[in-house]
Amino acid sequence: MLRRILLHASTTRRLPTGHVNPPSSSPLLHTRPLSSSFSSSSSSQIPHSPFVEHLEDNPDQTTIKPSTTISIDRSGLCNPPEHSHEPCSDSELVKHLKGIIKFRGGPISVAEYMEEVLTNPKAGFYMNRDVFGLGGDFITSPEVSQMFGEMVGVWAMSLWEQMGQPGRVNLVELGPGRGTLMADLLRGASKFKNFTESLHIHMVECSPTLQKLQHQTLKCVDEEVMADMADKRTVSTLAKTPVSWHATMDQVPSGLPSIIIAHEFYDALPVHQFQRASRGWCEKMVDVLEDSKFRFVLSSQPTPATLYLAKRCKWAGMEEIAKLDHVEVCPTAMELTQSIADRIASDGGGALIIDYGLNGVVSDSLQAIRKHKFVDILDDPGSADLSAYVDFASIRHSAEEASGDVSVHGPITQSQFLGSLGINFRVEALLQNCAEEQFESLRSGYWQLVGEGEAPFWEGPDEQVPIGMGTRYLAMAIVNKKQGVPVPF
Fold first, then answer.
1. Is 6 inside a domain boundary?
2. According to the per-residue pLDDT averaged within each range, which of 48-52, 72-76, 101-105, 243-247 is highest?
3. For the region Disordered, what residue ranges are annotated (predicted)?
4. Which H or E run includes 281?
5. Which residues are 273's β-sheet partners?
6. Which of 12, 211, 409, 470 is the most exposed place for a label (fewest CB within 10 A)?
């Protein structure tokens, strides 16, 4: 029935010859809300490393051009005119970045640039605006269809049952965006009172603007804890569940079993980029020329992130690394994963990570998107989203290295994950009971969540064709070993 509904159309769309839809081919579906305070390790001392030569000082700093080794289809995007990487008048963030470089007396890492661009308290991309949806810069899976949040809710309830249905559980979401995923999860689970009554929701979000949006989306109200006391708690009226906000994961109270959801969160964590040169592996840095233009340069000596490059190379093996000229490492992701694994090992529970990425070493994937279009990474910092592919293999190694009491499952494709949880049955039920004007929206949303490539049933404008992300996004789970294998892994 479902297959007939999806494929029913007067004509079948065919891709042009040679057309490829690699991961991240559609900026409309590229995203992840961010909500973590990143830490810089620029003061670390670097021992001799076999992966990066100790280089002679190079005051001129070799300028390099960005090169993409992960294919990204930009055929449907506009080609912006040549630019100088410099706004007509410097924004506060641009002045701040130049000030850091000038104060340091040299370039900053790509990771530090990325951190400032996304989460600078005054001018960071996520901090003071709503960047989601058609009117923003990108669209996330929860914004595509309510079914995504509902299926994540099914996963959370299944894990809760495997945990023995504890009476108190921390339900944590990292980078909740507008709060859409959590709202759909609570609506879908609202009939299961034993589950919802056990929950205390913790939203890890550093953006004040997004915190306010989440408060509205979850339909939160403030309630007095006791009639004769001034203490209040915030409760979501969707399921009468208490809600708290935190700037970082470390602020979430421990001691209770936790169900942690990280959807399109890891891809916004700052990455360090390394490039193979004749003198060895060198870190890619951001510098400012005399005419105030930003540029990429290569480090003249080993950097603090070299330690993480060495660790990543050890995990991968020299044969895999020997084939690459670029490598991205994300120390923040490694440390966050270790923190999550430690919490799950001690308190019980599990974490679900869904993002676009690879189950192996990531090469050169960092990209910028503004208003649903790819733009130059150095163009007008703070006005575009920056993100990179998630290294799922690195997440696995980090979790397993942190604790022997956790097990890692996956990654599997988003299509496999949602399909095993029952999204096919859910969409059939919705399609059979929906109004005519809702039919296309449901069908398109389903395809975007589980399909691959362009939707075959689409008859509208080519630029609006739904692009499936069912195989471009991967799902991975980290759970306490005592709970067994989580559904649907």
1. no
2. 243-247
3. 7-64
4. strand 280-288
5. 328
6. 12
